[in-house]
């Protein structure tokens, strides 16, 4: 696109946003309140099944325990993805509901919402896929693009990737602390200690709730309930990891050098968000369980618009991209995740920027 086409492209994207925001109302409010209720009641049901199952014999125990752990896991996924993530973005601030204000909402996860607003809402969404500015590129753990420096430690990243997936909430929780600064100076160590206080406090609260208080209510069934909570948290971690990585690290997702954001216009910011994002094709259930991040392109374009609108907005966004010749990356969950796995394996070995990667960097620098 030349500059004129780029500005017209951006204007159409902006017009879509304005039309959608102007139409927000009672239907959107009902939707998020139903999600709130679903989170609350599914958590109570899951925990009740785990507690009851702890006192049942044989097959009854395994049935109640399995369904309870799965139900609690779904509750945690909904709380993390469709409720917490989207509310913290400020998507429902327009409602004036103090329980749905992005600036104060806290979620059922080890990381604090305050840190998330800094690392995710600001840093990631402003500098999406910009090397040296977006910490979500590999999360400081994985080498996923050839533009990232290779070290021998990357050879073991297939193992790191599995561990990171299983403990994803904990990795995200400490992301903003930047533990690598510990060895730089005493000043950096003092900063880390100070910044770690609220994170450690939140971690302690989560551990006590899931692995002490609720298991203690089961008395002799303590270990069974604790194990159920562990499985539920593990399911949430694996699912969240899968959805986030499929939205950012597929084969056709572009990354950009720092100079690409100098004097960046709004139109170009929209362009960069589309090039750096990937959607996951699926139905309504996938949309809800993914927090509508199955429409990662639309989320990156409109992070403060209620996510339940993304499916409808995607029809227009895809048409705009088609008319302006902008690639719109989408695919099934197995296909997108397969590409992520290939990235993890391929870039554990030395590699150079590909022509596609260089093209993406050039497009970003337009």
What does this entry look like structurally?
Helix content is 63%, strand content 2%. The chain is mainly alpha-helical and 366 residues long. It has one domain. It has a two-stranded parallel ribbon. Helix 1 packs across helix 9, helix 3 crosses helix 8 and helix 7 crosses helix 8 (222-248). It is globular. Residues 356-366 have low confidence and may be disordered.
Largest sheet: 2 strands, parallel
Roughly how much helix do the residues carry, as a percent range? 55-70%
Total beta strand runs: 2
| SSE order, one letter for each helix or strand | HHHHHHHHHEHHHEHH
Instruction: Determine the structural class based on helices, strands and strand pairing.
Output: mainly alpha
Overall number of domains: 1
Radius of gyration: 21 Å
Strand content: under 5%
Fill in the keyword field for this structure:
14 helices, globular, 2% strand, 366 residues
What's the helix and strand layout?
Layout lengths: L2 H20 L3 H28 L4 H31 L24 H14 L30 H10 L1 H6 L12 H32 L4 H27 L17 H10 L3 E3 L2 H6 L6 H6 L8 H15 L5 E3 H14 L8 H10 L2
Parallel strand pairs: 1-2
Organism: Ideonella margarita
Pfam family, one: FA_desaturase
GO molecular function: oxidoreductase activity
Put the structure in a nutshell.
The protein has 366 residues and is mainly α. It has 14 helices and two strands, in the order αααααααααβαααβαα.
